[in-house]
């Protein structure tokens, strides 16, 4: 399902229409949808969250983005989690030790139980790993160089075994949410028990609305907030209005315009932190050999058409950083590999030299993929027009069928507006997910849009197996340089994580993953 991006109205849009970035019309996919905003102010023990993307599941096998982490981990937990300093902390495990290059010892935390009081068991961990490995199109699966197997020792102790070393497995296992084995399936779960501080008391997957209540059987410290209401409010203007009126307490992933409107209000706080998400206009690497985009020289020529500094300064008002590499610089192991250069004359000249004329490209993206997404896409259309490249935009609604398009199972496209995080804070994780594609992964459409370069996949594999940190860093640096030379993106940037909240909700530490620990938040009158 698609809708016109012209439905949204922001002050930044009006500024840009008078400037150099925007101009003529855009061809768009058809269709429209709307979503009701939340009504009624939260009670004294209730917090209301308005998300910019629909939370279709409280499981994360296919769906793990930004603020969804906050809610998902309020209900289901993993053996570990990544904290605000991007370091792993123990959750359902109280021991997680590398004892041999291919063996980790894990001990389940005493007293860890699900919301019905039943204990978290070793078999639940083994089943969870298997379910994540079997789901079609797994988001999490791309992070793992291989899936570990469980060797049980006793009721609470087990080993995680791999055929080759996976020295960051304690980071990676933070992505595997644990569910009772009997309830788990190789799909995103809509029901079932969790071990987190909250339980789901009502849910509507179609609207993205959920109600969470304090888990009275929670094994850890009781959460401070009794009730959490989660709402999907796609239009940013509506989210800003509901925050200002007190109908909601927290809104996420806001644009600079929204931050400007809210920054000066006495009862609102705007939180910012450098993010771990790479936002990109990624090329479709499933094109046939005779297609222009199959040629790295064409892909590189097109990059010169994009005025990245103007997009960051004028569209995003400096709320993002221009990429100087193929992953965010904040990640452990990231290096600078190059910069995107704006030179439209060079873009046209190189395309002419390659015999490329009458090029028409289709750009797709899902609404809410990143802040100011529609403004950015419309600007790109005009930048392409300036070098004689025609462009069609197709915008998908959250929860629509863009996944089928991304996997090459639906319609054709040329460039995808997307965001890819490293929820571990490690360079190797995002590189494994985006750039380590193999023919075996492509058979199940689990490569990142067909990106497959055997020598790069092999380099990432060597890095993922290297126990020596210094040597691993060197291997990662070499792989990043190779990736940059393949020109995977038309343009990319790293946004700051930005969240606005009413002052009544405090003790919220926004993490680089654009999430926070919901159970640690407090309410003040």
From TrEMBL:
<protein>
    <submittedName>
        <fullName>Peptide/nickel transport system substrate-binding protein</fullName>
    </submittedName>
</protein>
<dbReference type="InterPro" id="IPR000914">
    <property type="entry name" value="SBP_5_dom"/>
</dbReference>
<dbReference type="InterPro" id="IPR006311">
    <property type="entry name" value="TAT_signal"/>
</dbReference>
<dbReference type="InterPro" id="IPR030678">
    <property type="entry name" value="Peptide/Ni-bd"/>
</dbReference>
<comment type="similarity">
    <text>Belongs to the bacterial solute-binding protein 5 family.</text>
</comment>
<keyword id="KW-0732">Signal</keyword>
<dbReference type="InterPro" id="IPR039424">
    <property type="entry name" value="SBP_5"/>
</dbReference>
<dbReference type="Pfam" id="PF00496">
    <property type="entry name" value="SBP_bac_5"/>
</dbReference>
<keyword id="KW-0813">Transport</keyword>
<feature type="domain" description="Solute-binding protein family 5">
    <location>
        <begin position="90"/>
        <end position="437"/>
    </location>
</feature>
<feature type="signal peptide">
    <location>
        <begin position="1"/>
        <end position="36"/>
    </location>
</feature>
């Amino acid at each position: 399902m698609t809708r016109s991006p012209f439905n949204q109205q922001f002050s930044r849009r009006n500024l840009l229409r008078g400037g150099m970035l925007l101009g003529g019309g855009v061809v768009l996919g058809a269709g429209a949808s709307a979503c009701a905003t939340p009504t009624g102010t939260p009670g004294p023990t209730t917090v209301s969250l308005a998300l910019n993307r629909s939370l279709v599941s409280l499981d994360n096998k296919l769906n793990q983005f930004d603020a969804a982490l906050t809610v998902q981990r309020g209900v289901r937990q993993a053996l570990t989690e990544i904290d605000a300093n991007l370091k792993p902390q123990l959750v359902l495990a109280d021991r997680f030790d590398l004892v041999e290059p291919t063996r980790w010892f894990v001990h389940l935390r005493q007293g860890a139980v699900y919301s019905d009081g039943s204990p978290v068991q070793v078999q639940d961990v083994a089943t969870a790993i298997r379910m994540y490995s079997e789901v079609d199109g797994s988001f999490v699966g791309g992070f793992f160089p291989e899936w570990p197997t469980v060797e049980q020792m006793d009721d609470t102790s087990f080993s995680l075994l791999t055929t080759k070393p996976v020295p960051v497995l304690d980071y990676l296992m933070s992505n595997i949410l644990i569910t009772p084995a009997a309830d788990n399936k190789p799909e995103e779960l809509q029901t079932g028990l969790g071990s987190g501080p909250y339980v789901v008391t009502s849910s509507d997957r179609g609207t993205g609305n959920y109600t969470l209540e304090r888990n009275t059987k929670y094994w850890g410290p009781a959460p401070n907030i009794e009730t959490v209401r989660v709402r999907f409010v796609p239009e940013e203007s509506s989210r800003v209005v509901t925050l200002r009126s007190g109908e909601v307490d927290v809104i996420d992933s806001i644009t600079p315009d929204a931050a400007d409107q809210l920054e000066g209000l006495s009862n609102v706080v705007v939180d910012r932190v450098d993010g771990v998400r790479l936002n990109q206009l990624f090329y479709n690497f499933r094109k046939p050999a005779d297609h222009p985009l199959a040629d790295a020289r064409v892909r590189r020529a097109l990059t010169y058409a994009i005025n990245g500094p103007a997009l960051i300064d004028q569209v995003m008002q400096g709320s993002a950083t221009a990429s100087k590499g193929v992953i965010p610089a904040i990640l452990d192991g990231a290096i600078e590999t190059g910069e995107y250069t704006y030179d439209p004359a060079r873009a046209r000249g190189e395309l002419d030299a390659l015999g490329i004329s009458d090029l028409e490209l289709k750009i797709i993206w899902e609404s809410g993929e990143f802040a100011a997404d529609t403004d950015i896409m419309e600007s790109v259309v005009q930048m392409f027009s300036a070098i004689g490249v025609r462009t069609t935009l197709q915008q998908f609604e959250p929860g629509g069928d863009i996944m089928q398009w991304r996997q090459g199972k639906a319609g054709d496209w040329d460039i995808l507006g997307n965001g890819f995080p490293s929820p571990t804070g490690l360079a190797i994780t995002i590189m494994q997910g985006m750039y380590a594609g193999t023919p075996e992964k492509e058979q199940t459409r689990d490569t990142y849009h067909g990106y497959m370069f055997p020598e790069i996949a092999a380099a990432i594999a060597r890095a993922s197996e290297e126990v020596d940190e210094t040597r691993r860093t060197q291997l990662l640096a070499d792989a990043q340089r190779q990736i940059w030379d393949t020109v995977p993106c038309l343009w990319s940037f790293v946004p700051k994580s930005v969240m606005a909240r009413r002052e009544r909700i405090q003790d919220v530490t926004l993490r680089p993953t654009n999430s926070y620990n919901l159970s640690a938040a407090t309410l003040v009158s």
